[in-house]
Amino acid sequence: MPPLTPVTSARIGEHLPLLALLPDEEPLSWVRRGEGLVGWGVHAQTTVSGKNRFRDARDWWHQQLGKLSITDSVHSNGTGPILFTSFSFSGDEESVLVIPQVIVGSKGGQSWITWIGQTPQPKLLTQNENVTPSLNSRSISVQDATHIKWSGGTLTSQVWQERVAEAIAAIQAGQIDKVVLARDLNGKFYEAIDTRKILKNLEAEYPSTWCFSVAGLVGATPELLLRLNRSMVTSRVLAGTITKTGDDEKDLALAGSLARSSKDLEEHVYAVRSVAESLAPFCSSTNVPDSPYVLHLANVMHLATDVTGALAETSQHFDVFSILEKLHPSAAVCGTPTDIATKVIATLEGLERGRYAGPVGWIDARGDGELGIALRCGQIKENTIRLYAGCGIVSGSDPRRELDESQAKFAPMINALTMK
Question: What is the pTM of this model?
Fold first, then answer.
């Protein structure tokens, strides 16, 4: 039997600017308001697919953990070896699992480092040093590209609106309650795209979102699908959207109209119900607020509800993988009933979602973790990027308004790609 590979977690002490530590090659990120985890280097990586992908991911993660000898003097959520995950929306497509060589975390004003291997603790460098690349170490950035060539997605705007109208007709005929239809938009740069610059811009403009990067999928999601921390479960549900004007007085009135909108409240109820019903089998108790609040982002507002629960004490061990298998896909990204909505998406949407709208985030050796839904994001491949945006369609939807909403949801990534 080969010797176990050492993994060491140690406190650093001071708070670190996490995104400034990322290298230009395959950066891994899950950061919100300066806290979270970043990683680089690849200790191990694999892909999983199929309807059992969550169980297969757990099996692979546990196999890798069995090869490690862990020394953790920090003993906190997110310490020890970390699995960065980006699951596909559909089992027909590939999910990506990455165990980084080096992970740096920060929470509550304290930071720590975890590294795999016999080497001494890696040196974390300032932006003026060159061993671990920093944000300033690369000469090419997204801002250096003088032109972005945008091209239409899989469906034209007109055809997409026609598909939305078909979905509305199916809903009004009683065939389905809600379905989420997505669009894509393709951009091509004259230079390679620097993921770090995108993350930096997203963090600056959308501080209340989780800025993520896993295997070329980069974005800033406002929707926390699942946080599991010492048997406490949290899921933030977003459904129902209105675009902001930038005028505080007008936006306050719009927030009020969103909170009263029968169309948006109907969409929200389906999403909350699907999450609460999925969590119930795992929890001894759950808390579902009676009404949503309005979450204000830089360019849009959402109806939001935070569903929480306490894991039941049973002989069966529940972990993130167990809950994800039941929780995904929620009505917020699929629809309801789920099986019918999935078929409608396959018929009308016309695109491969890949890892868009799938769970993305991290999982630790204890089976705890934090994962969002991969929204407001794009898939990078060399000098091209494909952006995604989706809208929840219910009986009161209007195709033109849904198109406008999708354009607003493209805006965070478009701006992050072009900001100085």
Answer: 0.92
